[in-house]
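Q: Sequence in, structure out?
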Amino acid sequence: MAILPASNETKKLKKTVLSKIVKAFKENNLAEGVRKIPYEMIPDDASSEYRCCIYKEREIIKDRSIASLGIAVEGTKDDTAISEYVEKAMNRTELEPDVMTVLDIACHGCVPCRYYVTDLCQGCVARPCTHTCKFGAISVFNGHSHINQEKCKNCGMCAQACPYQAIAKIIVPCENACPVGAIHKGENGHAIIDYDRCIACGKCLNSCPFGAIHEKSQIIDILKAMRAGKKVIAMPAPSIMGQFACTPAQLHTAIKKAGFSLVYEVAIGADITTGKEAKEFEERMEAGDAFMTTSCCAGWNQLIAKHIPEIKPYESDTQTPAYYTAEIVKKEHPDSVTVFISPCVAKRKEVMDNPNIDFVLNYEELDAIFDALEIKPSECEDDKDIIKASKQGMNFGITEGVSKAVASIAPEGSEIKPYVINGINAQSIKELRSYVKNNKCENGNLIEVMCCEGGCVGGNACVNECKKATRQCTKYSEESFDLKTKE
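A: Exactly. Output:
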């Protein structure tokens, strides 16, 4: 399924809400500022651009504001004043456990997923659709094929058989995008997330054309720490180098202007991960293991834990770059507040299990802070204190980046054969299970798994188009040193 581009109307709405929240916080007028957001974005003289009326659009903006305060929208009451949600956000000392929330009022309530026969049907003599269907769900009368929905199993064989492509599939975007069946319709026909199954990959969030699925932001918690005078340290993921039209040194300055005390590149942690995984791979091959999976993707790790536990023995024991970077930061600055700057929602789950990382700020939220504070990264001066990682570490955020990094420092004579799973879906999950069943991967022995197509540059919170971000990351990585030669 096609992923919505990095810049679309739902992302613009989200950014506007976040930017207004940051401005209101900085002006010490958060409660009143958040209350006004729906009316500022949808004034009385506005025409309803997306919904039936401006009043529904305002209610949706209100729910976006609640989610942007880091609060679940499920269970909220219409008559609750926004000031109560602001007070809850300002006074909380612990984050809510689930990382996403569904804006019920924004959900379109799509019709159930099914196949149906369009007017393109020619009522042909061969009847390939009826002969292909194993469940007797298709019949022909009045020269037109019809599908009995009670018998149909949604296998799609009839659509593949039709020579006129007259059989179409109606999909529910969020359900269709989810690789593990973690989202479904509730009694009212609106989306519900099953968090016991959810791997926080963010595919549902990115695929919903109505923006009904929202991350619960931690932006207020980070701003509170800054206001309290704490040393708040940013740890941007390697894929950030593809997000903003500026140099890495300019981006560091922009992040500091946003209120961060220091910036530690997570690409430095990626170099540590590379070294440890290369050593671990050699040890596993010497021990006779068939293959090893390697990935820094938090969604992949959630997938193993919840849906493919049988692949656990093949999973690398090495920690992620964020883990090693946070370890360094907390050692050098034990009293600091650490903030991982992330391309996706999945990292929020990883961070909840890491005592060395306090909060997550995604790329969309960082972009909103830049907007609110009128910071233009491309106009910032270079940060002279930037510490560079290797070109391999800087490329961890793009597909093949992890496996290529490990392979690049493998010892002479190593039989390392990298293979990449570029995006988690039903087919790739089936493929991975087959490797476990057969204790063999014919495609390679070092398997890199990325939840998002393209790698982290394709994450749900990215603000730049995936191909452009890949080119930009590659460009800046070439300016750095090689991990093996140090040149």
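The first helix runs from residue 9 to 26.
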